[in-house]
Predict the structure.
Amino acid sequence: MSRPTPRVLLSAAKGDAGAAGEISPLSSPFDGLNQKIIRLLQEDGRAAYDMIGQTLGVSGGTVRNRVARMRDAGMLRIVAVVDPVAVDYEADAMLGIKAAPGVAPTAVAERLDPHPAVVYVMWVSGRFDLLVEVVCDQETELAAFLDAHIHGQTDIAHVEVMTRLGMFKNQFLLKRNVP
């Protein structure tokens, strides 16, 4: 079993905006240097700032400051992400959920969010309102989750359960291309 590799996640920021609402270049994930820092952190989230700085031709302090500003602005989170295939989870599924008439998808998402088996919830367009990823240690745990929290719930009109047969690619994407 391989060790989880820390990955870099970007999230929408609300902080560090100037008077006109623009984001400071020092905390923007779209700044050229910040993009390079993010790319290197995606490869190894535990990389030393001094090593990243040497690779990019800047000081470790510059890297440390840039990462701190992006984190403070809510633009960057560094977290450990476990690949469900690598840790031998027995059951995982993507659920396509259509909310019941008169029920907001956000209400269904908020109800499912606290459950530890739910690792991903996205509001989508198309035939589903939500895509929800569920990861469980055993198939019986997945079946119990579906029975208790999905099937027969009045806030869900329809669900399509898609279980994983194989994994071809699993990576986080940045909002824009990064060199």
About this structure: The first strand starts at residue 5 and ends at 10.
